[in-house]
């Protein structure tokens, strides 16, 4: 009989070797932890409502890139889902669709991708609890850069840096 095991997918860069933290560890005494680690850029997935989630990841074997597929039982996200160049929210949606559990819920990871969305949720809490009990720093949302003009009489600090390091300004 094959030993019981659970597959943990850790999404992180390769600067941290997560295998050393899980080597020899077991869940509830008799479940072996099989660890898979990859960056988001090396992952693809398929989530089916009947058969579950299959993750395919590119791994380097002796200088040759090969694709390995598996069904994760749990995922740990240690890499940003989105930055200025790439957006991996579709993978996040696939993990949600496949109901793969995570330390930080996939729901919370998705909701925290847009700072205005997060701040609007904090404003709802503030309205319920009151400004004295839940203070927030005032912010202004602009849908694009063209709308960013100072219409408030309060003093503000602006800092603009061009790509040329000799060109910069600071005004108040």
UniProtKB/TrEMBL annotation:
Tell me if Phosphoprotein is a UniProt keyword of this record.
yes
Extract the Pfam families matched here. Answer: Synapsin (PF02078), Synapsin_C (PF02750)
* Keyword Glycoprotein listed: no
**Subcellular locations according to the entry:** Synapse
Keywords, sorted A to Z: Phosphoprotein, Synapse
Query: Which residues does the UniProt record annotate as the domain Synapsin pre-ATP-grasp?
Result: 2-102
Limits of the Synapsin ATP-binding domain = 104-151
Annotated signal sequence is none
InterPro entries, sorted: PreATP-grasp_dom_sf (IPR016185), Synapsin (IPR001359), Synapsin_ATP-bd_dom (IPR020898), Synapsin_pre-ATP-grasp_dom (IPR020897)
User: This chain belongs to which protein, by name?
Assistant: Synapsin-like isoform X1
From the UniProt record, report the name of the gene that encodes this protein.
Answer: LOC106464084
